[in-house]
Amino acid sequence: MIKQFFLLYFLVCGFKSLGQPCETQLITTNQFSGISLGPSCGFLQEFKGQFQPTLEQINEAEQGMNDQLYERMIEHAQIESRFAIKNPMRHYRKWKRQYFGYVNDLGQQIIKINLLNFGARNAKTKFVGWKKHFIFGFGKFYEKNTRSYTYNLTTGRLKI
Description:
- By secondary structure, the protein is an alpha+beta fold.
- The protein has one domain.
- The chain is 31% helix and 26% strand.
- The protein has 5 helices and 7 strands, in the order αβββααββααββ.
- Strands 1, 2, 3, 4, 5, 6 and 7 form a 7-stranded mixed beta sheet that branches.
- The protein starts with a helix and ends with a strand.
């Protein structure tokens, strides 16, 4: 239900920013690569504010994802431990990332981590423009080849 809400919300908000230049920053480390989407991308206009995550903030969010994902998958998604991802850095090493930041109603800084599986067949045609536009979709391909997590920089907690 929450995923459907966010997808619908991004559809509506995404159309507000069509045609506008989108400020991005390429992020590359030894463990992952992706882009940081800036406030000019026009996401989440109803929240208190937006920010472009820095490399330091992205590293914190990635480390939080690595440390907490297994526990959160079992705790919240009620997945059997044998199906939960034990080492996210290794599991998602070939997936490209998109990051954007916003400030929620409580004044907490949040980073949205969007993961795209470029190892999948048809990924290059499905993820066209990923460096300038937030990618999401419906159907079997997107369900299998995208993941989205939320990391709260203020509390240090990951949500799935």
